[in-house]
Records
---
Amino acid sequence: MVGISSYAGYIPRYRLNRMTVFGAMGWLNPVLIAAARGEKAVCNFDEDALTMAVTAGIECLKGFEREDLEAVYFASTTAPYRERQNAGIVAAALYAPEEIRSVDFAGSLKAGTGALLAALEFVAAGNGSKAVVCAGDCRLGKAGSVQEMYFGDAGAAMLLSDDEVIAEFKGSYSMTRDFVDHMRGSDTRYDRQWEERWIRDFGYARFIPWAIEGLCAKYGLSTDDFSKVIYPCYLGGARRRIDAELGLEPEQVQDSMQESVGDSGAPHPLLMLARALEEAVPGDRLLLVSYGNGCDALYFEVTEAITAFKERERVSRWLKRRADLDSHHKYLVWRDMIPADAGLRGEEDYTTRWTLEWREHKAILGLEGTVCRACGTQQWPPRRVCINPECGAVDEMDEVCIAEKGGTIFTFTSDLLAATLNPPNIYGNVKFEGGGRAMFDFTDCILEDCAVGKPVDFSFRIKFYDPRRDITFYFWKAVPAQEEVV
């Protein structure tokens, strides 16, 4: 049996109310009021498609041994690198083995399901027993565009295997059409779309029914056989038309989260699937459809193993963990859509020394430390010599992933003079669970969230961006524990 063994989504902490966007840009495009319902999820200033995919991947791998992974696939249309494999960075951040297959999937909003199919086929062919698909997107629409209203940021991940399968893969149907509704060239930051009725009437409203009807015909099924039909479509009129044409009952249609997250691009079908799996019961049949230059349709059946699956709320938990971003200008600065002055300290020239990065890549990307076999002392960064003055053992070290351990705040401060796009800069000394301390920036918090002794998790984030060389440098930051909003 091959299928999904684990799932997760990631939704950034900050939410931008669409009426806030309209209040800032409605003077330019009054028709935006038609799309001003609800809110959308937006990345923090130190997040991007890759960091969101990593966070979803870490959540997805809870309870599984990372050394068992044999493939890491990354899907995105907004990956930070064109010629440096993004999936390789994801694999390192997940603390996966280095003897692993890694592939980037891009070029279409159905890249997420493309990666999912490739991973399922990888396992089914006997090339490996476990593969993880991580997806993330942070698409931009120009200020005052409908895309700015519709798009949201998110990540999702699926673990595919032939063991402990909670949703068995039963089959698929794919179609490809060079249908151009949205497009970005190789040097274009912002999405460009053709007119909305073209997207609605000739895109979503035709392709998604074709894909669903094609899968049903292939396997002798009807839409009545599915407990949930999951497909992305940010246009309410098109969704109503599709549901009516296919004869879908309201309870069969998975919520698209358009008014709480927005359309997150390549990860969105996987995010919706993860949300459906939170509430699925054994025997449920799930039909997943992606959209983008055609469609992929995938058919899953939920197994008895889902009843033993722990911590199932791996999307709704992130939906509850939210904070308002009450400034449209802050959003524009964070996405580098308008220039902002971070002061003289912000003019520092960051140069990445790739030889040093290579020597320390496990400590940087995987937050790997060491534990002394002689005395049990844990330390970071990893070293050959034990830091314990009463030990000093040489080459008696075992590797350990500090990132999955977490820690507590030992000291903290806020700094209004430090260069940051989200002042004040909060940082401090973090004590690792198991021993050792190091300085970290804090993120996804305000000063009042910090207290000595408070638990923190580690989150893979952008440490700095070098605009001269177009280099995004990643490291880990500390996220203080926060109460979830019910």
---
Amino acid sequence: MQLSKVVSKILKLENLILIVLLVLGFSVRLYRFNNPIADWHSWKQTDVSAVSRNFVATGFDVLHPRIDDISNVLSGKDNPNGYSFLSFPIYNVFQAGLFKTIGVLTLEEWGRMVTIVGSLFSALFLFLLVRKRFGRTAGLLTAFFFLFIPYSIYYSRVVLDDPLMVTFILGATYFFDKWLEKDKLSILNFHFLATLILTASAFLVKPYGLVFTLPMIYLAYEKFGFGALKKWQLWIFLIVSVIPLILWRVWMLPFPEGIPANAWLFNGGNIRFKGAFFYWIFADRIGRLISGYWGIALIILGILGNYTKKNFLFLLSFVVSSLIYVTVIAKGNVQHDYYQILIIPSLTILMGVGAASLLGKADGYRKFVNYIVLLVVVLFTIFFGWYYVRDYFNINNPSIIIAGAAVDKLTPKNAKVIANYEGDSTFLYQTKRKGWVSYERSLPELVKMGADYLVLANPTESDLNFGKTYKIIAHTSQYIIFNLRQKP
């Protein structure tokens, strides 16, 4: 009886710690929550949010997602309808749907809230998966690292659908594991349906999710060995989960102007396995940006830990899935640091189990030393990580916000605008108008294509020369707006 009370107290303490971590994790993600989308990688965020804004304005046409950019920057083809088949717009349905039904927050804030809440579920799923294999301490530490690594904080409060894919695939892995625990596999129970829906959703949001099913494949092998190939229920799961992705990919083929050029993502510049590839992925991104250098020690401990064969293979399935991902999508991962959002679960699992193994390696004064060492490593990981990530939250060009507001105030709602920002859609998004993000053609040609206004941020003396041809309707030190339909 006494033992049951002790166990009950431990479980209650575990739940309390987890709740505290989730609450604090939610709180830190509110940092600059109400900022306009003009921070790091805003070009990508504004494209995602533009789809949601068009849902709000013109209806939830999920089969024809549209952005504001009607230039040829996205695909290299003229895109007068602004089609954007970046991914199936599940994220946008959440963002726009919550904005329309609840309101209170702005559309952009709802986008951030969707990502934040999704990241909390990701932390919960990680805790549950790791606790089962490596114990509650490792589970809590994994959740801690996922919630408080500065890189993870920033990228789990952005208006992007990548973090939502992480939530879906982690949830799918958890429920798949629960489904396999049953003596008899059934396709008519909650765990199977949850796994199926979450897996199919992950694939629709990002096809890269296919790579991150490796832990599920291992779980099936662990349960049935090669006999898993004879389980018709697993084949039903595989086929049905992939069908929506196939249908979506077939559906988008008649809209090539809305499909981003993507061949370069795999091995643009033949960079795979070159010195630059290893430097940018392993030294700069994983070593510096994500781990703050010091976290690498915990990752190494996580790899070298003394685990049972089954637990080690489960851990290895996450690591290998991440290695396959960064290797296949080599140029994408080198070019953009937000591509590493998808490998954060693997890294934080290694950190969590590595930290837990350090705590369990000694007794007496050695254990005290280990606690001190771990505290120092964790603090330095977070401090140095913050040093490199802190500028991500900044708006480095506030003039585009002010200029965008001016365009929204001074021009008709249906006006088409040229907001030249070297192909970056952030400036155009602030205007709340459709238009062009670069001078893809001469101004007279763009006028023939429908351009009504030209807006420039931080104008120079040479920019005033446009005033010899087109009427200036507003001019400050921060912006200048030309009416392309009127002479001066």
---
Amino acid sequence: MKRLAWFVLAGLLLSSLVLGGCSGGGDKVRIATDATWPPFEFVNEQTKEIEGFDIDLMKAIAEEADLDIEFINVAWDPLLAGMANCQYDAAISAMSITEDRKEKMLFSDPYFFAGQIITVHIDNTDITSKHDLSGKVVGAQIGTAGSFEVEKIGGATLRTYDDIGLVQGAVADTFEFQRV
């Protein structure tokens, strides 16, 4: 029962955001996503469909609120710009809520609290915490919580990339996630 109440509330929040915000009155609600963030959203290589936790969540909300939705897969920067310019009715894309974003967009209540991790080459033993990044070049996807965190590290140089896969590829051809 608690779960159903949450979906109803989320559906009402989404409906008020969509219907009161950028909706152009069309039949379909256009939902932007940057499908490069598994397990939240990604393109299934076999079916070519967008899948993931966020996608399942939005489908459940849409079903509960009786909304006809269409997912639009778009890169991160155009997603944010498109939301600001009412190109999309809503977005779901592993997005962190920041003060700057709250000035431009409405958000539902958070449904996931994410932290940041540092990814290093498997042979790297010099970096064990964010404090070890001073004097280093640190890659992050442009406009993400990760890039904002790097900017706070004194002496670290931020190098931005268009998507997270490019960041990971820049670390090395073979990398391993190492939580530090």
---
Amino acid sequence: MSAEAAPAPDALKAQIRDKVAAAGSSFYWAMRLLPPARRDAMFAVYAFCREVDDIADSNASPALKQAGLAVWRTEIKAIFAGAPKTPLGQLLTEIVVRYHLNETDFVAIIDGMQMDAVADIRAPSLAQLDLYCDRVASAVGRLSVRIFGVDSAGGDRVAAHLGRALQLTNILRDLVEDGERGRLYLPKEYLVKNGIHTTEPMRVLGDPALTLVCRDLADTAETHFAEAERAMRACPRRPMRPAAVMRAVYSALLTRLRDQGWRDLAAPVSVPGSTKLWLALRYGLM
């Protein structure tokens, strides 16, 4: 969002709110459980994530992508110095102060996007994949739990495990979309274990052993879901309701992916909107 013709803060909040609602994502239903101020704060963080993600996923050259991310690195420094240059930065400055958010988490998100921007990720090691998940997902979780109202080691444990579980589930859902971009997030160790020695995305997706690789990664995701649920039980229940919805929706998505077995990658796999609504209502009443 450019500084030219900058909308008033309330108008910008409404624009962001409309974009999130139009996306129809699980995130939208989960965040509706928050009080309005916290919900708008989460939507602003979402808008920041979309900005840097769009840069990393664009068709621009690696140099231009890195330049775009560098602009946001500068803006994050400006936000924490109290001198933002963009309308979204101004919103984030207020949120950073109110909810005691950490600069390192915003920087980590940009670092994760830079991993995608420098070169297409193909068959990372398990350690590299874990670092990527921490940056692009668990760092978002660390910002989120503070906005929810949980500023504790327990909240950070939820962020660490739930972020990884959600990101691994996304990877297992988006194999074709990522492959068409030249990316392959399936870890090299799991490929080799199951007899796949190429890292060319579309060849991997056509290999009969793909299902075995995906099952291994799904097992890893389920371990993180279980650890996230355990960590949630040590946190205040009410502030954690949005996280509980996200866990429930994505766990259901992972189950559907397992049932489909990664045999027909062209068949979309998702959780129906009615199920998302039911889960939001269920956790909203807890």
